[in-house]
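Fill in residues.
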């Protein structure tokens, strides 16, 4: 890593909380490997201070920022420009300097797309089941529409909320791309060998014993389960998927790729697959260490 000097560029993460983020590990390692004179730091931003934080970063000549919960949608009015994908998704997680301020991007969904393809999970031309209908699930639906999925089936505890998201996505699609169901109505979804993307927070640390659906009959129809959670490394949803013969993946590779795409936007460099694989191993190891530390406290 470069010793910071008068030419060092600063990037950072804003959110609340940010204490357990893996982004500094990812970004500072990328800077070191690619020879960029750049340092990346986490900055907790209190409720009500978001606009001031973005203005301050601009005044201090920050090259860019990542944005995490709870500010991914709230940050949009603070931007000078917004990328069309981020605008459709309604969430921004990466800010890049542009004339007059920052341009907002969503690298989460391109990161998920790249991660799934790297794992050999293909979704173009097939139906996909999405668990949940919050902001992340909606973003996944937009990505699947853009990337050529045949259709989506949205399962949610509240069927009315799922229907509202499905109607919104169908408005973008110009037709019947999305269908909505209550969780217990999964039996109405046609076909077998499902690809299921788990886009709720159910099963996230510390509530690791939970899954959105527990029924054996559901998991017997799952060929591939992709959980966007990365802590714990194996969720209850993943355990159940594997128990009944499916393949299961967590969100670590998505976490790494969204960071890589942000880095590439800031620095106009290209990160090799070898570096991406090395970062994946490092991040998975760091997350496992974080979990062990938490269990021993």
């Amino acid at each position: 890593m470069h010793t910071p000097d008068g030419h060092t560029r600063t990037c950072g993460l804003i959110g609340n909380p940010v204490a357990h983020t893996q982004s500094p590990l990812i970004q500072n390692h990328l800077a070191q490997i690619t020879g960029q004179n750049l340092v990346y730091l986490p900055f907790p931003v209190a409720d009500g201070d978001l606009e001031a934080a973005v203005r301050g970063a601009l005044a201090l000549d920050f090259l860019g920022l990542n944005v995490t919960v709870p500010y991914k949608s709230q940050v949009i009015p603070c931007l000078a420009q917004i990328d069309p994908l981020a605008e459709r998704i309604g969430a921004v997680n990466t800010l890049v300097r542009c004339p007059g301020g920052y341009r907002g991007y969503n690298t989460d969904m391109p990161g998920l797309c790249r991660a799934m393809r790297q794992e050999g999970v293909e979704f173009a031309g097939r139906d996909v089941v999405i668990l949940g209908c919050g902001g992340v699930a909606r973003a996944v639906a937009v990505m699947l529409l853009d990337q050529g999925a045949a259709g989506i089936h949205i399962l949610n505890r509240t069927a009315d909320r799922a229907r509202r998201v499905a109607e919104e996505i169908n408005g973008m699609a110009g037709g019947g791309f999305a269908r909505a169901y209550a969780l217990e109505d999964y039996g109405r979804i046609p076909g077998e060998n499902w690809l299921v993307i788990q886009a709720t927070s159910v099963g996230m640390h510390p509530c690791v014993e939970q899954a959105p659906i527990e029924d054996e009959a559901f998991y017997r129809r799952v060929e591939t389960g992709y959980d966007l959670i990365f802590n714990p490394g194996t969720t209850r949803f993943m355990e159940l998927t594997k128990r009944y013969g499916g393949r299961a993946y967590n969100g670590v590779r998505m976490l790494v790729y969204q960071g890589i795409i942000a880095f590439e936007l800031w620095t106009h460099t290209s990160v090799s697959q070898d570096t991406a694989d090395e970062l994946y191993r490092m991040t998975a190891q760091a997350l496992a260490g974080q979990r062990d530390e938490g269990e021993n406290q």
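The chain is about 40% helix and 20% strand.
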